[in-house]
Design goal:
Structural class: alpha/beta
CATH architecture of the largest domain: 4-Layer Sandwich
CATH topology of the largest domain: Purple Acid Phosphatase, chain A, domain 2
Number of strands: 15
Radius of gyration: 29 Å
Length: 354
């Protein structure tokens, strides 16, 4: 029978050092010890402007069923979660949030915190600061408050000094994460126009916000819309997501208030893989035939005037489409009028010379 020679002292010392190194590595970096690489992708759901459905449980329940069926890392709500300062709406919202399987996070909208008790209700039912940041799978999400209260009590859409300072500090470590995303309620990147100035005013996106984000964030999300659209604003991928609010009558048929993409409640599924943002808008599917919001079920506390509301929306829609046509027509009419006057004057001038 062969005899095994005892291990040398040097060999035993070497094996002991390797074991110690393995234990230290396992405790400090458990993912690497089990052969798992740090995650380089993240999948999350974005939902905006859900208050049109806050008093319609079947819509919220349908959204929960579809979201819970997804393999996601988190759900982000982009403000205007309730219609106004009503405790019943906040409780209904909380039922919706508690039914979600994935962790959820929210930014405040003007409907949420502009009422007198809004901030207190936010603290009670949401429980997070108005601005903060979270990390999911080594990806940073910066959640900001874009509601600036003016001296008269009204809300001005903007990121004030405190929000921009928080944003700057959070992005100082942007390279430590696989991806960086910024979320707030108002669509601050919309260009100045007759319509945006009417509702927003100057948001200081170009001079105060975009320079802080450029080259550091992978996407920006906002929720103060009743539709869905995305664009590159100053080189920054920006997404606007929100449930439709009302419908109006145009040409004998009902169409969404803003005809951009969606006419149904929906959520956005965002996948960030290999440094690329991929998004898919998913409509909420109800058990009933109709998936449009039933605007007739708005509580009496917030009465609507259908005729006036539809007329105002129709005027806004027509102005948005007709103003460029009117301007071009006016220019053409002016040119034709000038040509006509010149032709009338020319024969008189020639006759006087004779």
């Amino acid at each position: 029978m062969a005899r095994t020679e005892p291990q040398s002292t040097l060999c035993r010392t070497g094996l002991g050092a390797l074991r110690a190194l393995f234990v230290i590595t396992t405790l400090a970096f458990p993912r690497f010890a089990h052969g798992q690489e740090p995650p380089t992708d993240v999948t999350f759901v974005v939902v905006g402007h859900i208050y049109p459905g806050i008093d319609q449980p079947e819509i919220l329940q349908a959204a929960v069923r579809q979201i819970n069926a997804l393999d996601i890392d988190g759900v982000f709500l982009l403000g205007d979660l309730v219609r106004g300062d009503d405790e019943g709406e906040w409780k209904q919202l909380r039922k919706f949030l508690d039914a979600l399987n994935a962790p959820w996070f929210a930014v405040p909208g003007n409907h949420d915190i502009s009422p007198p008790e809004g901030r207190q209700r936010w603290a009670t039912h949401i429980g997070t600061p108005l601005h903060h940041h979270v990390v999911l799978n080594d990806h940073q999400f910066i959640l900001l408050d874009s509601n600036v209260r003016k001296s008269n009590g009204e809300i001005r859409p903007e990121l004030d000094d405190d929000q921009r300072a928080f944003l700057t500090a959070a992005l100082e470590n942007a390279n430590d994460y696989h991806g960086n995303f910024v979320m707030f309620h108002h669509v601050l990147w919309l260009p100045n126009s007759i319509l945006t100035n009417r509702f927003y005013g100057e948001t200081h996106w170009k001079d105060r916000v975009a320079p802080l984000l450029s080259g550091k964030v992978d996407a920006v999300f906002a929720g103060d819309v009743h539709s869905y659209f995305h664009s590159n604003a100053d080189g920054i991928p920006c997404y606007a997501v929100g449930w439709p609010q009302t419908v109006l009558l145009v040409g004998g048929r009902e169409v969404p208030h803003q005809q951009i993409y969606h006419s149904k409640p929906f959520f956005l599924v965002v996948r960030f893989v290999d440094g690329v943002v991929r998004s898919e808008a998913v409509a909420v599917k109800l058990d009933t035939a109709s998936t449009l919001l039933d605007t007739a079920r708005v509580p009496e506390k917030y009465p609507r005037k259908p005729g006036i509301d539809r007329l105002k929306a129709l005027v806004r829609l027509n102005l948005h489409v007709a103003l460029p046509v009117i301007a071009a027509g006016s220019a053409l009419a002016g040119a034709l009028a000038a040509t006509y006057l010149l032709r009338r004057r020319r024969p008189k001038a020639e006759q006087s010379e004779l």
